[in-house]
């Protein structure tokens, strides 16, 4: 894939399979996903090398998710937190299990969808008031910013001590496949953030990327390029 650096990628022997995500797509574009961890969850060292952590420390931003072990995420988040200016975004997707407090201690922005937010906090998230209360519970866990993906209802950013920022969806001409839309949203938010855009601009950029994503089938193939996102933003 263009722009993805592979020099730190490692291949595992011993018959460890590549991780897989099996997507069951419904007629309305919604999906359910079964994850088989494979190499993503296997053969990690107890302690990451200094060389690997140096890459993290030099990053503009670190985006984590839960299809690798929490122990690895903790080491990476700690390394980023100890480097001035490296923001850690934790996408809550992947492992359906409580998130260790040791990990949350080093997360700047937690990004769940409303279902993940409900599972993480043990509270209902059926309306915006309940979502706000669940976000406040995350603040009490030590995470100062909660970026919640709300599907057709858009998104919201809850910054501790501030009013929530709500972003409606940018309507798609036709929803073919929602697979990867949340990943696209969070990654696009991260791109805009590291480029110095305001929180409102980050949300809008991410909404545009997600709108384009759901109009194409597939997870990787549906992720739009920058030019397409900017063109959409200029047209709405």
Provide a brief overview of the structure.
The protein is an alpha/beta fold. It has helices at residues 50-57, 70-81, 101-104, 114-121, 128-140, 181-194, 199-213, 226-235; strands spanning 20-25, 31-36, 61-66, 87-94, 109-111, 145-149, 155-159, 165-167.
Characterization of this structure:
It is a single chain. With 236 residues, the chain is α/β, with parallel strands linked by helices. It has helices at 50-57, 70-81, 101-104, 114-121, 128-140, 181-194, 199-213, 226-235; strands spanning 20-25, 31-36, 61-66, 87-94, 109-111, 145-149, 155-159, 165-167. The strands form 2 sheets. It has a 6-stranded mixed sheet, sandwiched between helices. The protein has a two-stranded antiparallel ribbon with strand order 1-2. Strand 3, helix 2 and strand 4 form a beta-alpha-beta unit. Helix 1 packs across helix 2 and helix 6 packs antiparallel against helix 7. The protein is globular, with a radius of gyration of 18 Å. It starts with 19 loop residues before the first strand and ends with a helix.
What gap, in angstroms, lies between the N and C termini? 29 Å
Largest beta sheet: what is the strand line-up?
3-4-5-6-7-8
Would you tell me the overall average pLDDT?
91
Level of helix content? 25-40%
Number of E-state strands:
8
Low-confidence stretches: none
Cα Rg: 18 Å
Structural class: alpha/beta
Strand content: 15-25%
List the helices and strands in order.
EEHEHEHEHHEEEHHH
Number of helices: 8
Shape descriptor reads globular
User: Strand count, sense and closure of the main sheet?
Assistant: 6 strands, mixed
